[in-house]
Amino acid sequence: MEQFVGLDVSQKLTHVCVVDQKGSVVWRGTCPSTPDDIAATVRARAPHAERIGLETGPLSTWHWHALKAMDLPVICIDARHAKAALSMQINKTITAGEGGAVVMNDPVLFERASRYHDLGVLRPMHERMVDGSKVDFFAGSQCRMSEFTGGVLVAQLRKLDQIVDAVRTNARRVYDGIRDLPGIRFRHLPDPAGELGSAVFLAFDSEAKRERFRAAMKSENVPANPPGGSVILPVQPHVENKRTVHPAWPSFTSERGKAIRYGSACCPRTIDILGRFAGVSLDPKFTAADTDDIVAAIRKVYPSVLG
To answer: Has this prediction a pTM greater than 0.85?
Structure first.
């Protein structure tokens, strides 16, 4: 059975976590922070270890060289990548922090995506997956994710159908529980059947009413937030003021570039819509009792705000 080990090293103690190929925890514990003690613990608790992940830190050079010398499959993970890979925001459905994935059934698109995110080359493993290269070489962007980040992403990808089904089930419970409220307005869904349902958004006549709704929901211990996850670029100061890396940057030095205007006048309808909506996020791990609490809070709060 394949096993994978994570080491969280401090000066005196190292926390060790062993998981199997499905991500289930096999053993969790501590040992002294010396290479000999770590090696003994790994061999006792994870005799079939395929990878031992060690985050960069003051002791990582010593540990990496010593564990390598003991023929243990240790890899050193940049602290930045470890933080990104563990930044699990459930409303991204699945996430690998700073990484991402494209899933497709077209071998040519797969090869182009693989080349683009690498150096323009097609690695032997990927070439075998598409049964031989079909695309000429081109310059890539070298945006490969770390092995650790990729592992997190693949583990979540295997659970994607289960996660999506759970989120949609919770969303349906909330929609069905509040649909009969007088005057209620939902966010327009162009494809209701394809909607993920990671949040249920409600419309209000004004931003002031939206904020009253949010405050009242907070009192019911159910957070409600405006649409998020991105920004309105034209109103960001650096965009509105056309700041570039150098004053002579050509984008805005031509007559046409000088004539371009950004700011709130570019997208008044977008700003208005985003200012009048609030939504409740839905977690795939929510129980029926959790969604019932959300429904009860909305049914209590929404009519009073409209009135």
So the answer is: no
